[in-house]
């Protein structure tokens, strides 16, 4: 009799069978919905800030690239819609393609050298004892934290024609042709060599410290197994370690391409000592001179848009590789 009542349920309600989950209440459903909404609510503020700080200027730049926007528009004249005229002006200018080729070459050399030096220093950090390793890490952090203008001031002093340390050393050992020689104004090659050194100086610490952190995550058991198989140090690094930390290396290389292709501060400061901007312009300074310097914001916006597309083209392969590996 009691078993029949239990099976029928109290008050005619359906009975709970063994192992069945209790029915969800309205309160439980509301809590579940709230927990699903929390991550999206937390994203509202950062996404909103990014859209306001980066999205609006990018949209405004894209619109201006189709407008006649010069000095007159800065004093109140409405901008005139001219379609693709600014892009035609940019793409048919031979000097633009010279600057693009120069920028891509500078980016390639700077990014590759930065990655090679940075990863090499990271491997060196792993081999050092505690005290030298800490000292080198502190030196890298200090170099990274130094303001770019301060580092550029030091480099400018080093290559100053009359009182610079480089010329003083060279003339002291007998190279009289370098007395009062201007490294920045004397040749495009020396200008871009010094510019590349300044860019590499500011980028190597990040690559080194990030690569060192990735190297420390490699399982020692894998390295021991490779050593037992007869792999030497270089072979282990090339065939075992670097493939494991490849996502980090690709991400850093992609960031280096982006930073080095749009480099501005180092080139602009060094140009003030060189005096020949046309022969040393890269895309960043070219956009600045066209817009801020020349007052032609429409053409400068078209230049910046083409520059953005170029960055996307150069980094697309690495972004696709990272996405396939599930790291983005």
What is the tally of beta strands?
2
| Low-confidence parts | 5-13
The percentage of residues in β strands lies in under 5%
Q: Considering DSSP H and I runs of 4 or more, what fraction of the residues is helical?
A: over 70%
Helix and strand element order:
HHEHEHHHHHHHHHHHHHH
CATH class of the domain at 90-287: Mainly Alpha
* CATH architecture title of the domain at 90-287: Orthogonal Bundle
Please give the order of strands in the largest beta sheet.
Answer: 1-2
Major beta-sheet overview:
2 strands, antiparallel
Would you tell me the structural class of the helices and strands? mainly alpha
- Termini separation comes to 64 Å
Overview of this protein structure:
With 328 residues, the protein is mainly alpha-helical. It has a domain at 90-287: MetI-like (MetI-like fold). The protein is built from 17 helices and two strands. The protein has helices at residues 2-8, 26-64, 71-74, 85-91, 94-127, 130-145, 148-158, 165-172, 183-186, 188-215, 220-228, 233-244, 246-261, 265-274, 277-280, 283-293, 297-324; strands at 67-68, 80-81. Strands 1-2 form a two-stranded antiparallel ribbon. The longest helix is centred in the N-terminal third of the chain and has 39 residues, at 26-64. It is flat. Mean pLDDT is 83; it is low at 5-13.
Summarize the entry for a quick read.
The protein is mainly α.
């Amino acid at each position: 009799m009691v078993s029949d009542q239990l099976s029928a349920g109290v008050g005619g309600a359906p009975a709970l069978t063994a192992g069945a989950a209790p029915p969800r209440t309205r309160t439980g459903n509301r809590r579940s919905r709230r927990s699903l909404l929390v991550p999206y609510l937390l994203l509202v503020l950062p996404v909103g800030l990014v859209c306001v700080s980066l999205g609006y200027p990018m949209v405004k730049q894209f619109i201006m690239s189709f407008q006649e926007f010069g000095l007159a528009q800065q004093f109140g004249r409405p901008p005139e819609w001219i379609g693709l005229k600014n892009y035609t002006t940019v793409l048919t200018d031979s000097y633009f393609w010279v600057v693009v080729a120069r920028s891509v070459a500078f980016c390639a050399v700077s990014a590759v050298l930065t990655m090679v030096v940075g990863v090499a220093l990271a491997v060196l950090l792993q081999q050092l004892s505690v005290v030298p390793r800490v000292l080198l890490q502190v030196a890298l952090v200090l170099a990274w934290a130094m303001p770019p203008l301060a580092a550029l001031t030091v480099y400018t002093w080093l290559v100053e024609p009359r009182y610079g340390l480089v010329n003083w050393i060279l003339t002291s050992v007998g190279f009289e042709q370098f007395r009062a020689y201007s490294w920045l104004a004397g040749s495009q090659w020396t200008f871009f060599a010094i510019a590349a050194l300044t860019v590499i100086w500011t980028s190597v610490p990040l690559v080194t410290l990030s690569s060192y952190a990735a190297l420390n995550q490699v399982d020692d058991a894998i390295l021991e197994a490779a050593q037992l198989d007869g792999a030497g140090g270089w072979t282990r690094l090339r065939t075992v370690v670097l493939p494991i930390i490849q996502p980090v290396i690709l991400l850093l290389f992609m960031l280096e391409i982006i930073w080095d292709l749009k480099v501005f501060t180092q080139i602009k400061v060094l140009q003030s000592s060189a005096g020949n901007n046309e022969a040393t312009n890269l895309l960043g300074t070219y956009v600045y001179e066209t817009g801020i310097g020349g007052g032609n914001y429409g053409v400068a916006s078209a230049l910046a848009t083409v520059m953005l597309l170029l960055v996307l083209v150069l980094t697309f392969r690495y972004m696709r590789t990272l996405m396939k590996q599930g790291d983005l």
